Amino acid sequence: MKGKVVNIQSHIVQTQNLHPDATGTLTNLLWDLIMAVKIIAREVRRAGLADILGSIGQANVHGDDVKKLDQFAQERLEEQLAMNGHLCCMASEERTEMIPIPREYNRGKYVFLFDPLDGSSNIDVNISIGTIFSVLKKVTPGEDGRLEDCLQPGLQQVAAGYVIYGSSVMLVYTLGHGVHGFTLDPTIGSFLLSHPDIRIPAKGKTYSINEGNAGAWDAGTAKYVQWLKQKDPASNRPYSLRYVGTLVADVHRTLINGGIFMYPASPKPKLRLLYEASPLAMVAEQAGGMATTGKERVLDIVPTELHQKVPLVVGSTEDVARYQDFFLGGDGPQKQAKGKSER
Ligand code: AFP
Fold it and tell me: What is the pTM of this model?
């Protein structure tokens, strides 16, 4: 129906209705997340004022002292998600150990993994930052969550997504039925469906990597980036370089416009499997894209520790498959081209 406005709450309910055995717990969990995210978004908007307010000793609207934003985001998500009995445990990029659910709250069947404020070094220069989340089902017996509940491969995720605090605030999520994007309308305080069923283009024309590390790249990555810079209009080369340095922002652009984001194995992996790579890999695959370490599918990796770091190469299927080919030492592009310009 033309002009129909769909908010995120009704979208989640409709998706859950596809599962006749659903109890509504996941829906409620996501609603808690949305509430936390709206509060974080409000604080992000005020970030430029935080120093001013802090310097004159003011408190925020809750009477709390003005806190660093990443700490604020961590606490908001932790508190909001723990209290309604949906979770057995949590883990976060900001906490060394698994986060148990406080004794005063009920336990539930889900595990919540998150990076509360991705790209936090960009806060001070007013560049987009984000929140990344992943939801798994408890797999161990008993009420309390254990480490094994967190250490599940990305393929087991029941929900994943991210929020980007940029020129507008967007929440992008998947429950395994495609990827949907919502933009926060600040006048009514609701996330409204703005990007239904996001499909990543099969091929893009931008690449995203920290070129400052070029001297330390493995041979495959170096060869691939060199190939991207060669002139061949038929295959959109040279590609343009775009690098924000906030994973959520770089992956979001790649999801919408196509192309490739790389944080390769060398000089060393930086991104965390549980809080960054796995959820974004699920989003990418659900949008028709690909996510690899160079040699294996990210969603297949069985985590061995909470803060495990992995290489992440994610984006349009043709671009990522070609990277993988270079990484594995293949000369696929030449073979496929057979002397002709490539698509
Ligand atoms: P910060 O949260 O310290 O800003 O790190 C951001 C990040 O984890 C991820 O969001 C970026 O994609 C990546 O680091 C950028 O890393 P480099 O600065 O090494 O390129």
Answer: 0.91
